[in-house]
Amino acid sequence: MLPRFWRKIKYRYNLIGSKCKNCETLYYPPRNICPKCRRRGEMEELELWDEGRVISYTIVHETSDDFKLNVPYIIALIKLENGVIITSQVVCNPSEIKIGMKVKPVFRKYGEDGEDGVIYYGTKFVPAD
Ligand SMILES: [Zn+2]
Fold this sequence. Notes:
By secondary structure, this protein is mainly beta. It folds into two domains: 2-47, no CATH class; 52-107 and 121-127. The chain is built from two helices and eight strands. A hairpin with a 4-residue loop joins β7 (102-113) and β8 (118-127). The mean pLDDT is 82. The site of zinc ion has 8 residues, from loops. Residues 20, 22-23, 25, 34, 36-37, 41 line the site of zinc ion.
């Protein structure tokens, strides 16, 4: 689950998906072609900045040094109000996370590169209530 989570880093961080103007289906990660409409479809990028609910989660106790994340942290599968399902970090006490919990996206510091001092920011989720 983790390697796939980190691969499309730009899109994960920015919560960008695509929407077919023809059938109005949302896709995340974004696609260039709507599999339903094919040539009739026209895709546009849009930000999926929306509240959602936790449908599954994993508590990560170890991480690669490259990411400098504080452990343990929570990676959750979140179903947004707009129907899109995404994978994201949820920032809360690991004992508080539960299935069905309402969460909202926030822009937070993700980690830093110790040698270069580069700080990465991105989208995370926090409890909404
Ligand atoms: Zn379509």
